[in-house]
Every structure is written in structure tokens, then in C-alpha cells.
Automatic annotation (TrEMBL):
Specifically methylates the uridine in position 2552 of 23S rRNA at the 2'-O position of the ribose in the fully assembled 50S ribosomal subunit. S-adenosyl-L-methionine binds at G60, W62, D80, D96, D121. The lineage of its organism: Bacteria, Pseudomonadati, Pseudomonadota, Gammaproteobacteria, Alteromonadales. InterPro entries: RNA_methyltr_RlmE (IPR050082), RNA_MeTrfase_FtsJ_dom (IPR002877), rRNA-MeTfrase_E (IPR015507), SAM-dependent_MTases_sf (IPR029063). It holds the Pfam family FtsJ. This is Ribosomal RNA large subunit methyltransferase E. Its main location: cytoplasm. Belongs to the class I-like SAM-binding methyltransferase superfamily. RNA methyltransferase RlmE family.
Length: 206
């Protein structure tokens, strides 16, 4: 079946994307790695020895970065509905974290330990209907925030991908109730026309 003009244009853009090429050269699984690298350089969310939860982790671009930063003394608990090839130092739980079963698995894997940072690069399967997709996106990041509130230690950090649109302002306001500082980042590796931004919460109030 012939590709649509839109998908053909996307494929050309993807192949020629300097961050895609850089990710291949640097051995990263996704161009998204550079988004987290830039955010962490600015906001110091993750440090050596930390325990980090990575939601929506496949194909593993963020987990790769986190595992290197936290080192052998740290822990990375990752989860995605899709399969993710193993990464040294990362415990991966496959399944839908919005289900009770996977949620419990994530909590059990922590073994009553609190988390220093929760990160989420999750996005819903897009339907192409902007309003529907926006609601689905906001619902996911609300669940990620709920998880962060349940597992973060006081003073912990949170970073989530959010799409600007309906519900975005309310979401940022909700985050401010739980964190001492809330920042919005648009990393250089995020495509300029994309509505995605990364909302960073620092200093969880517990």
C-alpha cells in the first residue's frame, strides 16, 4: 500500500533529523534521550545513587541515560505497555501501568523504598482526533502524577511530557500544589512545531 504524503514527509524528516542521526552514532535507542539529557543538565533531577521510576520507557532512550547517571548504587524501575530490550541496571515491568496489576508490580519492585525521581515520556496511541488525543494525553500524565505522589520521597522530583491544549493549564496548576518549584521546558531535541513540553516539578512537598 502506498504511503500517504503525510507519512512519507514524516519518514523523510525522521531520517534526516540530526538528533536521530546523533542517537544512532551515540548508541542511544531514541532521539528522546537528548531531551532528558538537556533537562537534567538544567534542573539536576537525577544524581548518582538515586532510585528513579521511568514510566512509558520503551524503547529505553531515557532508561539508558538514567542507568548511567545513577550507577551501580542506584536503581531504575521502568515500565511500558510495549516490550523493551533489557538494559543493565534497569528493572523492566511490561504492561499497562494504569491497571491495578501492573501498578502493584511497580510498588512491589520498590520493596517499600521511596523514589527520588519519577519521569514520564508517555503519550497515548493517537486517534488523529485532536480533542480526543488531548484528553487521553492529560489523563495519562495525571496518572503519572498520582504515581509520583504515592512513591516520591519528600524533596523528590518529577518530569513529564505534556501536550499543550485543553487541560494543560489546570495540570500545571495541580502540580504546583505538590512541588516547591514547577518549571516548563522545551528541549532543543523537541520538534519546534510539536505541542509537547516537559513539566518539571522540584521539591516534592510530601
Amino acid at each position: 500500500m502506498a504511503r500517504s504524503k503525510t507519512s512519507k514527509k514524516w519518514m523523510e524528516e525522521h531520517v534526516n533529523d540530526p538528533y536521530v542521526q546523533k542517537a544512532k552514532a551515540d548508541g542511544y535507542r531514541s532521539r528522546a534521550s537528548y531531551k532528558l539529557i538537556e533537562i537534567n543538565e538544567k534542573d539536576k533531577l537525577i544524581r548518582s545513587g538515586d532510585t528513579v521510576m521511568d514510566l512509558g520507557s520503551a524503547p529505553g532512550g531515557w532508561s539508558q541515560i538514567v542507568a548511567r547517571i545513577v550507577g551501580e548504587r542506584g536503581r531504575v524501575i521502568a515500565s511500558d505497555i510495549l516490550h523493551m530490550d533489557s538494559i543493565v541496571g534497569v528493572t523492566f515491568i511490561q504492561g499497562d501501568f494504569t491497571s491495578d496489576e501492573v501498578y502493584e508490580q511497580l510498588l512491589q519492585s520498590l520493596d517499600s523504598q521511596q523514589v527520588d525521581t519519577v519521569i514520564s515520556d508517555m503519550a497515548p496511541n493517537l486517534s488523529g482526533v485532536n480533542t480526543t488525543d488531548q484528553y487521553a494525553s492529560i489523563h495519562l500524565v495525571e496518572l503519572a502524577l498520582d504515581m509520583a505522589r504515592n512513591v516520591l520521597k519528600p524533596g523528590g522530583n518529577f518530569c513529564a511530557k505534556v501536550f499543550q491544549g485543553v487541560g494543560y493549564e489546570e495540570y500545571v496548576k495541580d502540580m504546583r500544589s505538590s512541588f516547591a518549584k514547577v518549571l516548563v521546558r522545551k528541549p532543543a531535541a523537541s520538534r519546534p512545531r510539536s505541542r509537547e513540553v516537559y513539566v518539571v516539578g522540584k521539591g516534592f512537598k510530601g
